[in-house]
Amino acid sequence: MRHHLLRRTLTALLAASAVTVLVPAVASATGDPGQCRTSATGRSSDLRPGQRLEPGASLVPTPGKTELVMQPDGNLVIYALGTPGGFKLPLWNSGTYGNPGAYATMQDDGNFVIYKQGGSAQTGGGIWHTATYGSRANSYLAASIRDDGQLVVSGRAETSFWSDTPEQHVRVCPSDMAWGRGSWAQAASVWLVLQRDNNLVMYRKSDGKAIWGSGTYGSRSPLSLEIGDNGDLVLHGDDRNETVHWRTGTGGNDGAYALLQDDGNFVVYKKDGGPGKGGGLWNTGTYNKI
Questions:
Q1: Where in the chain is the domain with CATH 2.90.10.10?
Q2: In 3D, which of 123, 9, 22, 19 has the Cα closest to residue 71?
Q3: HEC profile for the chain?
Q4: How many CA atoms lie within 13 A of 61 on its CB side?
């Protein structure tokens, strides 16, 4: 069973994410990356069969991007990294805190397992696993953390994008796939995350403080973030009717797109607008909060 519980020390952080939508202010201009697609995955760092991630150890594909940490409290956590030595944003965790000394290992049978201190495949003590064991031939078995924040387990039974935490591009366009829960993007000063509680939240990299949120936490059905062909940025349910839970109200602007800027503002622009060109239709008003 997959675990999406949050480490107890993060409770205050998530409580802070339940903020209300701020009144839009004038958008500040920054550089426009000019792309409309998901970020490249980049490098990965692997645990191969027989290898262990000991308490306090981490896997880091590319310094400064993401890391997988086996914490001393027994929790396995994926972090997005900000400034060196600064705040790290938790993206996913195994929910196994309270087990000091626990370690993670990739087994020969294709299963990725967390064992209590002193436990093993021979003696027992497993407290979490990916259930990717099996008899299917697979020459490459590994638990991999990628630059985009995804934990991928290639086992004998299946290859699983276990954490569902893909990094997205800072520009959200009508041609893009919708963001699912766990998706995130980052600019120079902020992270924007569609959390598992369905709240879209902006965190400041300097100290991890939540500075804006959609107020959609607690919705029963999973929500997705998407901008329609008409230019309206919405959070809608994954139900048959795709019920809208939040929107920017920018419909009637075909081809509009949203941009997470380096200045900390999240802005919806007209099709031909952008930083330095004007055409802002809506924004979070967070450019002065970084």
A1: 8-39+168-283, 44-161
A2: 9
A3: CCCCCCCHHHHHHHHHCCCCCCCCCCCCCCCCCCCCCCCCCCCEEEECCCCEECCCCEECCCCCCEEEEECCCCCEEEEEECCCCCCEEEEEECCCCCCCCCEEEECCCCCEEEEEEEEECCCEEEEEECCCCCCCCCCCCEEEEECCCCEEEECCCCEEECCCCCECCCEECCCCCCECCCCEEECCCEEEEECCCCCEEEEECCCCCEEEECCCCCCCCCEEEEECCCCCEEEEECCCCCCEEEECCCCCCCCCEEEECCCCCEEEEEEEEECCCEEEEEECCCCCCC
A4: 23
HSE (CB half, 13 Å, CA atoms) of 289? 20
Are the C-beta atoms of 231 and 268 separated by less than 8 Å? yes
Q: 44-161 has which fold? A: Agglutinin, subunit A (2.90.10)
Residue 159: what pLDDT? 83
pLDDT at 256 over 90: yes
Whole-model pTM: value is 0.86
CATH superfamily for domain 8-39+168-283: Bulb-type lectin domain (2.90.10.10)
Q: How many CB atoms lie within 10 A of CB 18?
A: 16
What's the whole-number mean pLDDT along residues 256-274? 97
Token couple for 204: 């400041």
Q: Which of 280, 268, 201 is nearest to 26 (CA)?
A: 280
